[in-house]
Amino acid sequence: MAAALESRRWSGNWRAVSEEGSARIDVARGRSGRRAAVADARMLPPGTEIVLVVPAPGSTRRARTVAAAAGVDISREYLALPSAQAPAYLIENAAGPFRVFVDNVLGSPSHGALGRLQDVAVGVIRRLRPRRLVGMLGAGSVVVGRRT
């Protein structure tokens, strides 16, 4: 039950990185999801700020592909944790902000065998800081841009 409450509370966090009146477009996985997102973006008038919300895995590449096909000029990209649909954290997709997040915020729940596995993963991330790998496999993406 607590996870559901957290998800609902965080589902509007994408608004923190966009201006009022922005259009949110959820990009589903698969070719049909990308096509639908491109069609939705193309229906909007030029100059509209668009926020692409893209679930992991492969969210960064999928967001950039959709933006290019839809004529969206990307201004900002964020890694979204734990998910793009309900992000508790939106981390600018750049080395500096990712390093600050990993060093000061990232942790694991540490419960049972899964918690120990998560502790190991967090330790590896802290040592290596593989931002691109985390972006590719584990984090959703929230991408902000303007329709051209």
Describe what you observe in this structure:
This protein is an alpha+beta fold and 148 residues long. A hairpin with a 7-residue loop joins strand 3 and strand 4. The protein has a 5-stranded mixed beta sheet. It has a domain of 102 residues.
Strand content: 15-25%
Strand order of the largest sheet: 1-2-5-3-4
Q: Roughly how many Å apart are the termini?
A: 42 Å
- Principal-axes geometry comes out as elongated
- The radius of gyration computed from the alpha-carbon positions, rounded to a whole number of angstroms, is 16 Å
Q: What is the percent of helical residues?
A: 40-55%
Sketch the topology as an H/E string, one letter per element. HEHEHEEHHHE
Structural class determined from secondary elements? alpha+beta
Q: Low-confidence segments, ≥5 residues, pLDDT <50?
A: 1-6
- Note the total helix count: 6
Calculate the mean pLDDT score and round it.
85
Total DSSP E strands:
5
What kind of sheet is the major sheet? 5 strands, mixed
SSE arrangement:
Blueprint: H1 2-10, E1 23-26, H2 30-42, E2 49-54, H3 59-70, E3 72-81, E4 89-92, H4 95-104, H5 112-128, H6 131-138, E5 140-147
Parallel strand pairs: 1-2
Antiparallel strand pairs: 2-5, 3-4, 3-5
Helix pairs in contact: 2-3
Concise summary:
By secondary structure, the chain is α+β, with helices and mostly antiparallel strands.
Which features characterize this protein?
148 residues, alpha+beta, 6 helices, 5 strands, disordered N terminus
